[in-house]
Amino acid sequence: MRDVSFDIQRGEIFGLVGESGSGKSTVVQAILRTLTPPAIITGGEILLSGKDILSMSHREVLQFRWQEISIVMQSALNALNPVLSIHKQISDVLYTHRGLSKDQADKRIRELFDLVDISYDRLDSFPHELSGGMRQRVVLAIALALMPPVIIMDEPTTALDVIVERDILFKVLELRKKLGFTILFITHDLNLLLEFADRLAVMLNGQVIETGDVAQIGSGGQHAYTKKLIGALPSAGGKRKKDLLPQPKSLNFGEKPLLEVQSLNKDFVLSGFLRPKLLHAVKDVSFEVFPGEIVGLVGESGSGKSTIARLIARLIPPTSGAIRLDGVNILKSERTTASLEYRQKVQMIFQDPFGSLNSVHTVFHHLARPLIRHRLVPKSDLYKYIIDILESVELSPGALFADKFPHEMSGGERQRVAIARVLSLQPEIIVADEPTSMLDVSIRLDILKILANLRIKKNVAILFITHDLASARYLADRIIVLQKGSQVEHGYSEALIQAPQHMYTKQLIAAASPGWLSSKISDCK
Amino acid sequence: MTNSIKYLLRRLGFYTIAAWAALTLNFFIPRLMPGDPASIIFARFRGKLKPEAMDALREVFGLTDGPLIEQYLTYLKHLLQGELGISIAYFPQPVGSIISTALLWTIFLAGLSLVISFAIGTLLGTIIAWKRGGKLDSFLPPALAFFGAFPYFWLAMVFLFVFGFGLGWFPIRHAYGDMVTPGFNLAFIMDALYHAFLPALTMILVSIGGWMLSMRNTMITTLGADYISFAYAKGLSSRKIMVKYAARNAILPNFTGFGMALGFILSGALLTEIIFSYPGQGYLLLEAVRAQDFPLMQGLFMTITLAVLGANWLVDIAILFLDPRTRR
Amino acid sequence: MATRFNDSVLVRWVKGILGNRKALTGSLLVILFVAIALIGPYFTYDPTAFLGTPISPPSFDHWFGTTGQGQDVLAQTISGARQTLLIGFCTGFFVILIGALIGGISGYYGGRVDDILSMLINVFLVMPGLPLMVILASWLPPGPLTLIGVLVLTGWAWNARVIRSQMMSYRGRDFVSAAIVSGERNIRIILIEIMPRMLSLLASSFIGASIYAIGAQVGLEFLGLGDVSAITWGTNLYWASNDLALLTGSWWTFVPTGLSIALVSFGLTLVNFGIDEVTNPRLISERKWRKHLPKSRLNNGITPVVRNND
Description:
CATH superfamily of the largest domain in chain A: P-loop containing nucleotide triphosphate hydrolases
Structural class of chain A: alpha/beta
Mean pLDDT of chain B: 80
Number of strands of chain B: 0
Helix content of chain A: 40-55%
Order of helices and strands of chain B: HHHHHHHHHHHH
Number of domains of chain A: 2
Distance between the termini of chain B: 8 Å
Helix content of chain B: over 70%
Oligomer: heterotrimer
Radius of gyration of chain A: 26 Å
Number of helices of chain B: 12
Structural class of chain B: mainly alpha
């Protein structure tokens, strides 16, 4: 982190935006002086109400923490001590800083629970017994315990579903209005901040490259990087941005579907010794994908979309239903193991670019193995074929990348390798399971462009699975919306976005469109 | 809480299966060896044992002429009744009574050493992990690892030689001297501790390195967790974080390791006893081997196995109390 | 197929390990003893010959003195290394083989297979080793094969369990799913994709198993269950004890052997420490960079502020 400066006014909501590696989390830890060795602070001042945190004594720092400034961390489960009850984790701040008696502490905790809407019977629960949303509210309650003037929120909702995320943010804003604290909000999601922040700072590679108020930044700001961040965000509602992604000449994909899923069901047995519980992950789902078509499967976590991906890729067997490829029900014709032919025609791209590559092997190995297995290319032509494929996904020079190991590449490069691997087998359909969720915002569009181009050039169908309605809107021809394992709506992308029929679809669109905050406020009225 | 009871019962069920497996193994081993077990025994003790004794021996082993299944069931029946047969080395004492006194001494010595070793080792590991990079951290782990590399009994020999024979500071054998009467009186207890000192010291020195290292490693891993930085951010004091947040979590995997290491530690205890002529299971085992006393050997195998399984179950109970995640 | 042979998995891994100070020291120690075991016996007296006066302390003629029977202790210590180390490493090897086989299959295939094999592993794990070993060894004819067999039978379960859990964790990862989707056969996935990532685990398991084997072997032989006519470290101690070393004060009959055992085990342990540190760099003692900071500012959970003018 170098030369970072910004100031926050009392009572405002200040946003700090940056992608991974930008240094935004480091700033937070520096403010609280909780950076772990071997980090040291080598210069500067951090002033809170005139007092410099960096020149405080040991005891002063301990007092300062939590009373003057508290923090809500990203993953609530990780922030909570698994072996202590919720009650104890709130009360220890109360005992340490305020020296309250047990009764006083109890009273205070109940007040806090009221503020964040948790019922008292959860007092003695342990973190693992609560749901994700509840845990986040507990962490919020702890942050409010001493009513500090400043609260830092470090990516508090990144891991949550869009609708839950909006609910929690709304709650936070409500509380702020009531209690009047200042918020420093850290996130990589610029869209979010444009809704409710007052001023913003953008960080890149450990430095602050731009600061300004929301209107300024929202219209593109001054720095090229800011412009790039703004431009990379398609939204789910409102007018369609023209020419964001390359489109095919016609939307007529023929009469015969390439892939047909019929009444697909998948149940998981949860551990339970005498009476095992069933989780119905996929309930009676049916749809078709035509050759060269891109179909978007949209849903939140728990919607079953990833399960469907794994079912079609034949990583897990379905509980019932049919999967037809080119008209043949492969669950009948190749019941126990998928045939080599199937494995060539149906390919998959995974969510985590690093996880889907094997860290001990080179890019060349990753691409060569499947080709050798399927005997698609004679050994003599192997090297050239691989170089060509790499260059076709913009990994140039191919020869340089062929020798690299996964850890020597960036996230975007790794995902491109995954696409190359999939491409090399010349499949008929690619199942892309959230291919951009773990990538930085600024490169997501690049990957989507590659997929769009692929479809046009090679006429390969894509089943695009995502929770991000906006990217589905632009990439996919048709969209299917899933909720808790069932289909709730489907239709052509733009038509669905402009005129959604089902309540859930409407909610999703609203949550991902600008103006969700004001619409929520008006909902409450 | 019924979830916890279900969990404990499930573990008990597992231990029962393990015990059954051990029993069955015990039954089959003599029968799998080349030669007929009956004739081996007879050959060894011909002339030394009266015919009735021979018959009794046969009974215990189920070495009757019936089909295998019948022999097996007889064998199980005897075991469940506590009938372990008659010792050959200590003829005509029944195996059961010989073992029971020895068992107490072993539990006393091994239990004492284990608890002290675990407690001190864990404490040291916590302190070392806390003061990362201190002088202790560079000196203790290799030093204790070196001690841990010695075979238990060898270190026992050295201590016995130096402190027992050489300097005469400690007694060189047995669990208590001739001058005290057994019972719950202070003199006896003090004498027992005096006699147990060297063997316990040996066992503690050899095993402490392992506990310390494993606690250090789990602490280091735990200290990297988010809830620790969150605890710091809350302004809690270092000491409180070390105890309530870090150590409390880090000790859990060590407890599970504790259970699994019990069998291993017991082996070390047995060998140490032999050197010190301490009248525990180990000493008996040696006698049994020397005298080819099969009933005694098999009886010892049974009791030791059951003791270890029982101790494992106790550890499971302890973990239930310490880790709320197992109570789901 | 890898175009960068110098960076093949094995080579990179070995380089990484040898770069670690502890691992290097430990390896040298072990190699020293292996060398002594292989070459040493050619340079010493015949360990079985009754050469000198019994129980004489170290002298110019007999550097480590003589045993209760008048045999040269140095010769016995050096000769003993061969069999002990051989059996130790062989056992280690077989333990890993069986452990990897059972643990690997159990972890990879899951389901019914895993249920059965897991139960098997757990049962063997929980049974106490020494008594079982004693019983087996006393029924079986004494000798190296018995020892290896007994040691492997009692020792395989620990490693199997560790390997199984590592295998299970890899099995669920995306790179395995990706390999499956691209049509790779299961055996190939296990051998070419997963095993290379388990190198550290397999190496440290082998070392751990060898340490265990050496110790247990010595223990059994000490009890008289090995072949007492053979020259091994364990039988050396058996005879020393039998010849009443403690009573006669002839410490030289058991100290050299014990020290040798300790040094080899310690060396192996060091290598394992090194492997741990390479796999989890956080374990490395932070001595080096801490030297640069004033003592008072460490370890209280507060980031130190060191300005350029301090």
